[in-house]
Amino acid sequence: MKSFGFNKYGGPNVFEEVTLPQPTPTKGRVIVKTQAFAMNPYDSKLRQGTITFKTTPQFPQIPGSDVAGTVVAIAPDVTEFKIGDSVMGRVVHGAYSEFVSVPHLKLIPKPKQISFTEAAGVPSAGVTAYDVLKGAVQLENVTSILVLGASGAVGSIIVQIAKAMGLFVAATASERNIDFVTQLGTDLVISSDQLSKRNFLDHAPVDVLINATPTKFTPSNGYRLLKSDGQLVSLNGFSTSFKVQRETQTVTDFNDASYHQNKKALVYLAELLTHNQLHIPVAKVLPFSLAGVVQGQALLDSHHKPGKIVISKDFKKTN
């Protein structure tokens, strides 16, 4: 089968088309014929060789964790799917391929309301967002949150889940992404470079502050806007200058590997998608080809507009 991977670290052009054996369904797994896969920032770090592994990784490396497509083979112990089902799911790696072996506990039927291209953008960012709100955060008595970095893939889904839960949602974004974040349904949007100035939240601090930016949380990131007994969650750690101000606050250095809610999260996300309470913005759709993958990797390395980068067999030259 055709896959896209690399045999050395470097820029987008290290990618090459790789021929690998088509997977067969081992215990608990489903083989999906790929219609679309999404790219994530992790893929770029993997390509550049900046990810630390416990053991030496083997080449060629085939990235990719988000896949949408059609079921073509099923292990005997898997009963919830049938051949021909349209599905979306999550794997550790290997989604940049014509066929992907997906654990059945990380796979669900694709909602009819969305395309394969949109579906491919859901799993990793969606499960992470769900784990933040439904795992790391204790939701009892929570009525308000502030999301830093709300234009990112995870941040934008956190905003939409929180709105679906009926919370007051404030968010930050760069000036150029203010309109995008406003359209997500946020109640208050603050320009990132204006966060140090007094605003409405100085008079009404939030119950939960979530750092969904790609950088470590620092005290200047609006820490003053969190209640004295509030919860702070950072997806990318904390700066050395950060110190907890009050013992009554809960501070969490989020690691998605601590949660095992893939199926539960995907089912929940599908419900939101079905009821039009969640939208997955797609920044760019590219062809299912080596050229498409290289172009997508270059976009990953740039400050592209909000939304997912998706490699899709449904690519149309007009997009």
What does this structure look like?
It is built from seven helices and 15 strands. 22% of the residues lie in helices and 28% in strands. Strand 8, helix 4 (153-164) and strand 9 form a beta-alpha-beta unit. The strands form three sheets. Strands 3, 4, 5, 6, 7, 14 and 15 form a seven-stranded mixed β-sheet that branches. The protein has a six-stranded parallel β-sheet with strand order 10-9-8-11-12-13. The protein has a two-stranded antiparallel sheet with strand order 1-2. The protein has helices at 41-48, 116-120, 123-136, 153-164, 178-183, 262-274, 290-300, and strands spanning 2-6, 15-19, 29-39, 66-74, 86-90, 99-103, 107-109, 144-148, 168-173, 188-191, 206-211, 226-234, 250-253, 282-287, 308-312. Helix 3 (123-136) crosses helix 4. The protein has 319 residues and is an alpha/beta fold. The longest helix has 14 residues, at 123-136.
Concise summary:
With 319 residues, this protein is α/β, with parallel strands linked by helices.
Compute the gyration radius: what is it?
A: 20 Å
Shape category? globular
End-to-end gap: 27 Å
Quickly count the helices: 7
Q: Low-confidence spans: pLDDT under 50, at least 5 residues?
A: none
Instruction: Please identify the structural class as seen in this structure.
Output: alpha/beta
Fraction of residues in helix: 10-25%
Run of helices and strands: EEEHEEEEHHEHEHEEEEHEHE
Give a quick account of the main beta sheet: strands, pairing sense, barrel closure: 7 strands, mixed
β-strand number: 15
Q: Let me know the average pLDDT.
A: 95
